[in-house]
Amino acid sequence: ARIIAMFQPHGFTPLRLMGEEILESFKTYFTKDDILIMPEVYYAGGTVNRSVTAKDIIEKAKAMNINAHWFEKRDEIIPFILEEAKSGDKVMIMGARDDTLSDFAQEIVDRL
């Protein structure tokens, strides 16, 4: 069974500081059939360095031969998952600080 993982970065600074390590983890543990999905960074406000974005990280992931997809808006992800998911696939929704992630995950379950 494949893994379809949606990882929503929870800040520009953590992504800038740990983006390479995050990708190494996906590279190590994903198979070629698994899918990484990333919306743009969850922004909680404040002054922040936006020199590294989720789109940048996804481009690096693709260069590492990870089956990776970036979406500017999170609501664009649900149709993609509904199209991609097959019986037996495992869909994971990951992120932090965003209280709406559980609602997002429930919407996917309800529509699958």
Structural write-up:
With 112 residues, this protein is α/β, with parallel strands linked by helices. Helices cover 42% and strands 19% of the residues. It has four helices and four strands. Strands 3-2-1-4 form a four-stranded parallel β-sheet, with helices on both faces. α1 (12-29) links the parallel β1 (3-8) and β2. α1 packs parallel to α2 (54-63). The chain is globular and about 40 Å long. The mean pLDDT is 92.
SSE diagram, text form:
Elements: E1 3-8, H1 12-29, E2 35-39, H2 54-63, E3 68-71, H3 77-84, E4 90-95, H4 101-111
Parallel strand pairs: 1-2, 1-4, 2-3
Number of strands: 4
- What is the H/E order? EHEHEHEH
Task: Provide the spatial order of strands within the biggest beta sheet.
Answer: 3-2-1-4
- Note the main sheet: 4 strands, parallel
Rounded mean pLDDT score: 92
Question: Structural class from helices and strands?
Answer: alpha/beta
Quaternary structure annotation:
single chain
Approximately how much helix is present in the residues? 40-55%
Low-confidence stretches: none
Q: Helical region count?
A: 4
The proportion of strand residues reads 15-25%
What distance lies between the first and last C-alpha atoms, to the nearest angstrom?
16 Å
Mass-distribution shape:
globular
* Structural Rg: 14 Å
